[in-house]
């Protein structure tokens, strides 16, 4: 299975990077990082992203719109944008494909492949809610990083694992990051 993980410049960029560690040995993983994702990562976490830390992942830059994920013939099975900035949401919902991330999302839509958006914003504006509704009606899964209170979190790591686990569930990747409801 080929999975494309796109990480945009919204808060919680670290969750996108942690997704890599859970996905890279479970599938053929391709990652696109936006320029703003790298900036937010440095601001929120005080370190620079090191591409060499990941051995089983192929990376693309968001400004390289000519790369393989821009074509339906590349054969991506599932795409997740996590976190997904409001700017990226707006572009996707309006058919603007001016970056590799937004082009890859457009490809997912036209090829009718699974597309998941981990939209990161609070509160949502009426415009953003309208855009999410429009995309949801087209089959896009809108999955903001929201907590489930039934999980009884004891640490930030448990909260992060819950959110990542929910995204992995949507990608149909087995994990044991959080206790399922029983």
UniProtKB/TrEMBL annotation:
Molecular-function annotations in GO: flavin prenyltransferase activity
InterPro entries per UniProt: Flavin_trans-like, Flavoprotein, UbiX-like
Enzyme class label: transferase
The protein, known as: UbiX family flavin prenyltransferase
Pfam families with a match to the protein in the record: Flavoprotein (PF02441)
Keyword Flavoprotein: yes
Gene3D superfamilies, alphabetized: Flavin prenyltransferase-like
EC number: 2.5.1.129
Domain Flavoprotein: 1-171
Keywords: Flavoprotein, FMN, Prenyltransferase, Transferase
